[in-house]
């Protein structure tokens, strides 16, 4: 009873004392963007890091990658590499280590709105969407269906309103596009129309890279303006594990760097399938494949904004299906991320895959496990951290809203504890212990209630009878209501009419507004 009475008196008591907030300069956490502070989870010891690096260098120097296009061969041979008798492109260890040393670090991927930049400094962590899901959960139909271009725009504008989703990486495929050029152009266009957060997308070939570059230059005002503050990054999957190039993707990588577009150099190996069954072996192979792409980007332009993107995935060896929500996945991702931190390179990876089809308890625990561990591991960019369901095969608006709450909690938990005489406050503890016997009425408690706590957007903290009186709704229902309200009222057009007309006159843009 004492605690309940103190709660009801808390606000008034503080005012009667004439109390002021103890931290007048600290704004409320509500509505703020919280950046993760990672780097504390290190599954590899120093000897393990050295061993992985040595094996990765051996793989690049002795085994090499097959099916390299002529453009890649020319770059590597000019830098001291060669093609083996078996036709595999070999990277000398000296070249790899020179590139690691010379690659750009601590650069920024910009947003087009205030407080949306991604500063890729060591251990800063940003979370967002991602993937290439072919289906979306239709809230009106109550089932999954093929995704289309308007769904992509809808997803972007929903993400635009969610504070703890830092960037928009294309999460679904617009399956109503007639060809790859229309797919690539319209994906970039719809994403940029729907959100001012940094956009990640992809390109199928060099022509699409140039098309996307032209969109960016137009929106920025000039090529130079975009190069100064790039607000779009291309995801490039340059390798096909084990140790083989995707020649088209390599051409995309090279053209993107030439156009001044940042690139996330991504490698997707499946443990036990396209990569070794051991975590150590999978990380070594993935590191080698990712380094191959990073070296190519550096050889094109030593100032290239290239992000080290290892994305090794766990396979359930009983079925061959993805098992992205398991404990081994969390370990594997963290180990691969640790290699990027060892090199001091900006990094990107995947976390948040779940085999659940809806945002239920399974979805929650699988996502929270892998995202938390990856944030703690210190990856700069964590894609697929929200919204994706069914082994990345489907996107759910409800899940985006639920996961936004989850991400806020995960990121908040990584912030350092403020240790100071004010926060330790031995004299205040003594005064309360010898006086009221509780802290609920203290001025500092009232002040910090409004400054130190991140309150959930949709998670329910009411007592049982209040929850029952409101309809006994679960979080999925509340999220659906929130998503529908946003989609009904938030219709941004972040490409102005003049740019829109110019781009539609020169590119096959099909988004209907």
TrEMBL record:
Sequence similarity: Belongs to the trimethylamine methyltransferase family.
One annotated GO biological process: methanogenesis
EC number: 2.1.1.-
Keywords assigned: Methyltransferase, Transferase
Species of the source: Puniceispirillum marinum (strain IMCC1322)
Pfam families: MTTB
Enzyme class per UniProt: transferase
InterPro entries assigned to the protein according to its UniProt record, in alphabetical order: MttB-like_sf, MTTB_MeTrfase
GO MF assignments: methyltransferase activity
Spans traversing the lipid bilayer: none
Gene3D superfamilies: Trimethylamine methyltransferase-like (3.20.20.480)
UniProt-recorded name of the protein: Methyltransferase
UniProt KW Ubl conjugation keyword: no
């Amino acid at each position: 009873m004492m605690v309940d009475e103190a709660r009801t008196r808390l606000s008034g008591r503080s005012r009667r004392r004439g109390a002021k907030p103890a931290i007048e300069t600290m704004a409320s956490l509500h509505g703020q963007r919280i950046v993760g502070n990672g780097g504390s989870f290190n599954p590899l010891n120093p000897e393990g890091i050295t061993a992985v690096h040595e094996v990765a260098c051996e793989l690049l120097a002795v085994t090499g990658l097959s099916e390299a296009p002529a453009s890649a061969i020319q770059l590597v041979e000019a830098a001291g590499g060669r093609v083996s008798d078996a036709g595999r492109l070999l990277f000398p260890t000296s070249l790899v280590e020179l590139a690691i040393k010379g690659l750009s670090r601590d650069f920024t991927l910009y947003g087009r709105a205030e407080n949306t930049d991604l500063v890729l400094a060591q251990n800063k962590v940003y979370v967002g969407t991602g993937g290439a899901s072919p289906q979306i959960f239709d809230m009106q139909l109550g089932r999954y269906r093929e995704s289309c271009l308007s769904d992509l725009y809808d997803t972007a504008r929903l993400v635009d309103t969610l504070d703890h989703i830092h960037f928009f990486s294309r999460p679904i495929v617009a399956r109503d596009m007639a060809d790859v050029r229309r797919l690539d152009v319209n994906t970039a266009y719809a994403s940029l129309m729907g959100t001012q957060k940094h956009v990640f997308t992809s390109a199928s070939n060099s022509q699409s890279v140039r098309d996307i570059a032209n969109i960016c230059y137009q929106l920025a005002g000039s090529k130079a303006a975009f190069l100064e503050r790039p607000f779009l990054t291309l995801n490039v999957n340059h390798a096909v594990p084990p140790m083989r190039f995707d020649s088209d993707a390599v051409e995309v990588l090279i053209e993107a760097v030439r156009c001044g577009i940042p690139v996330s150099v991504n490698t997707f190996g499946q443990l036990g399938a396209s990569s070794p069954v051991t975590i150590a072996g999978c990380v070594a192979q993935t590191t080698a494949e990712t380094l191959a792409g990073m070296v190519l980007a550096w050889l094109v332009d030593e100032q290239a904004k290239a992000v080290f993107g290892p994305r090794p995935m766990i396979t359930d060896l009983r079925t061959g299906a993805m098992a992205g929500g398991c404990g081994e996945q969390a370990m594997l991702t963290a180990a691969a991320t640790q290699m990027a931190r060892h090199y001091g390179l900006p990094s990107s990876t995947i976390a948040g895959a779940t085999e659940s089809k809806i945002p239920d308890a399974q979805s929650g625990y699988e996502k929270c496990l892998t995202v938390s561990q990856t944030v703690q591991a210190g990856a700069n960019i964590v894609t697929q951290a929200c919204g994706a369901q069914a082994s990345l095969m489907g996107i759910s608006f409800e899940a985006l809203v639920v996961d936004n709450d989850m991400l806020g909690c995960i990121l908040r938990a990584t912030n350092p504890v403020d240790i100071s005489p004010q926060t330790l406050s031995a004299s205040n503890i003594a005064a309360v212990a010898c006086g009221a016997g509780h802290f609920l009425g203290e001025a500092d408690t009232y002040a910090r209630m409004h400054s130190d706590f991140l309150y959930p957007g949709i998670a329910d903290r009411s007592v049982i009878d209040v929850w029952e009186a409101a309809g006994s709704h679960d979080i999925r229902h509340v999220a659906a209501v929130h998503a529908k309200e946003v989609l009904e009222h938030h219709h941004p057009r972040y490409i102005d009419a003049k740019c829109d007309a110019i781009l539609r006159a020169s590119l096959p843009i099909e988004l209907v507004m």
